[in-house]
Amino acid sequence: MQPTPQRSQLFVASCLALLVTSLSFGIRAGILGRLGVQFGLTTSELATIAGTAFWGFPAAVILGGFVVDIIGMKRLLIVAFVFHLAGIILTIFAGGYWSLFISTLCIGIANGTVEATCNPLVATIYADNKSTKLNHFHLWFPGGIVIGTLLVYFLDKAGVGWQVQVGLMAIPTLIYGLLFSKLSFPVTERVAKGVSTGDMYRALKNPLFICMIILMFGTGATELFTGQWIDVLLKNVSDNAILLLTIETGIMVIGRAFAGPVVHKFSPTGVLLISAILSAIGLYLLGHSTGNMLFVGAIIFGMGVCYFWPTMLGFVSENLPETGAVGMNLMGGAGMLATFIYTIFMGGYYDKLVAAHLPPGDTSEAAMDAAKKAAGPEVLNVTLIIPIILVVAFTILLFYMRGKKNTNSLATAAH
After folding, report:
1. Share of the chain above pLDDT 90, in %
2. Closest C-alpha to 163, from 91, 100, 97
3. Residues 6+ apart with CB under 8 A from 140
4. Which of 25-34, 53-62, 180-189 has the lowest mean pLDDT?
5. Residues in CB range of 244: below 8 A, 6 or more apart
6. CA distance 183 to 203
């Protein structure tokens, strides 16, 4: 492991950068409706604006993975800082569709660049404890969403305008920019170990890595699609649908904070299998329950998805270290891209289900509410297929990794 005397400061600055990323999701989600009203935007235009963050993010993650070793982590984080600041300022002074589109794209690029740099940074400075520290780092994503949505809620009650709410993101942005500008950065773990660029690209063809990319599509879509859509899908089933998201996100924060003992007890592969099982149970309850059982479903689902993203990255970094920053960032890009594609597909499917449940010729508000009440759980039931497949896949992976470990142990003993 490289000597990194400033690793605590680097970790704190990384957490602040991720906090800005998640605040942008929470605050923008809270003010998007008002932006539409103020600037006379259609639902389609709002969806396009919101969507830029989701394709700007994976584009920046993947591109960042390829250039981080070339230009260095510090320079890449300065790029993230500039895009974050530009996105915040452009949003505050937005005058309509295009200024909001460009500002959201800037923030999406900044968010992806933070992920592209800070994931390999955390894996490098905590090479002896990757999965645990990546979980600690990633707790700031759900944590920031909770903080952002609460800020919007309470500042709205106090009559504070949306421009001020967006402007608050500049405070942690300026702090992380200042911290990173003063700190010394190590080279990435792959470079420190002397793994050549050619070896890195060859490692990306490893069948295990390709399998993990495919599984990341499933874990990313399970976590992020459900989190984004839970309010839409269940608002006609429960009067407190948004509270379900708050509970799920809060569970994720607590779970990631106590990741150390869990990861050490069950191993990353064991954690992924348990996560898939709990996610499937939670989704089943969310799609088949009413009343208080919905909250039980949200708690179990939150326990399931909380370890998915950071543990998937940790698994690749620990078991396929030759893939380097590119490997980790291809994983992150795959997870976000899967969410983007699945959200578009399921949005159309949801509209078809609503139309199918409407009585012929009846488009009254009562009929529409009843149709949405029936359609929402059906979307969750279709999504349930993904974690069920993941249970099977992670069971196979668990036995494969145990077999590989036993083979390595025998080979070591023979020598």
Report:
1. 49
2. 91
3. 15, 18, 19, 22
4. 25-34
5. 230, 231, 234, 238, 286, 294, 295, 297, 298
6. 31
pLDDT at 264 over 70: yes
Distances (CA, A) of 127 to 122, 130, 132, 236, 400: 8, 6, 10, 47, 23
Quote the tokens at residue 135.
Answer: 């979980």
Instruction: Tell me the mean pLDDT in the region 357-361.
Output: 87
Instruction: Tell me the C-alpha distance between 350 and 29, whole Å.
Output: 20
Give residue 43's pLDDT band: very low, low, confident or very high (50, 70, 90). low
Amino acid present at 199: D
Average of per-residue pLDDT values in the chain: 88
Half-sphere exposure of 58 (CA within 13 A, CB side): 18
Tell me what the mean pLDDT of segment 369-397 comes to.
Answer: 93
CA distance 225 to 253: 18
Q: Give how far the C-alpha of residue 396 lies from the chain's centroid of Cα atoms, to the nearest Å.
A: 25
Query: What number of other Cβ atoms are within 10 A of residue 198's Cβ?
Result: 8
Please write the tens of the pLDDT for every residue from 121-149: 999 999 888 889 999 999 998 888 888 87
Alpha carbon dihedral 254, 257, 262, 268, in 10-degree steps, equals: 110
Kindly list the structural domains of the chain, giving each domain's residue range(s) and its CATH number in brackets, ordered by start: 7-185 (1.20.1250.20), 195-404 (1.20.1250.20)
Contacts 24+ apart (CB under 8 A), 207-215: 208/319, 208/320, 209/316, 209/320, 209/323, 209/327, 211/393, 211/397, 212/312, 212/315, 212/316, 212/320, 212/331, 213/330, 213/331, 213/334, 215/312, 215/390, 215/393, 215/394, 215/397
| pLDDT at residue 32 is higher than 90 | no
Instruction: For residues 391 and 87, give the distance between their C-alpha atoms in angstroms, rounded to a whole number.
Output: 40
8 A C-beta contact, residue 266 and residue 255: no
Say if residue 1's pLDDT is above 60: no
pLDDT tens-place string over residues 218-251: 999 999 888 777 766 777 777 767 678 778 888 9
- Take residue 311 and report the two structure tokens written for it: 């543990």
